[in-house]
Specification:
181 residues; mainly beta; 2 domains; six-stranded antiparallel beta sheet; 49% strand
């Protein structure tokens, strides 16, 4: 396995479908331990602990923090194009082609050839109401890949309030709702 470090961010490349134990020994001598299970097909699973530094703020996610914030992570980086959509309480839709609406901004877009694996929509202080969010399988980027694992995290100021995971196949889309107060 390979380890990459930067400040308090550590990334391991691990076998899929395997449970691992981890222990972090901090410079002040305290330790944190836990387990993480890698999903099928490989995926990025950020482990962000209490003592994370600036580089890890937001749990290792790309894009701006917000209240609310919708972050899509997916596997097959560069081999598929998944798109994040968020419908605001007033019915406007934010996505790669309409990047702002009702105070929200789509600030991270990952398209074929970008070698990335996240999309992000955020509000500094979003309006109360029901948000509908979904992910669409846009294309295979010429890779022939027909599916991708994904995780969508809904956050309020770095606190995860909802997580949705799954596998999306070519031509599929899936939807959820979130009520923001």
């Amino acid at each position: 396995y390979e380890t990459f470090t930067q400040c308090s961010v550590i990334q391991f490349i691990l076998d899929e479908n395997t449970e691992y134990e981890y222990t972090v020994v901090w410079m002040d001598g305290t330790t944190d331990s836990g387990t993480v299970t890698t999903p099928d097909g490989g995926f990025v699973t950020p482990i962000c602990l209490e003592k994370d530094g600036e580089e890890c703020e937001g749990g290792g996610l790309d894009g701006q923090n917000g209240d609310p914030r919708f972050n899509l992570q997916f596997s097959n980086s560069g081999n598929v194009d998944l798109d994040l959509y968020v419908q605001t309480p007033n019915g406007s839709i934010i996505n790669y082609s309409n990047t702002t609406a009702q105070g929200g901004t789509h600030d991270v877009d990952c398209a074929c050839g970008d070698a990335c694996d996240q999309e992000n929509v955020f509000w500094e202080n979003g309006p109360s109401g029901q948000y509908t969010f979904w992910v669409d399988y846009y294309g295979d980027c010429g890779s022939g890949s027909t599916s991708s694992n994904f995780t969508i995290k809904v956050m309020n100021n770095n606190n995860v309030v909802m997580t949705k995971t799954g596998t999306l196949n070519s031509g599929e889309s899936t939807h959820w709702t979130y009520n923001h107060n």
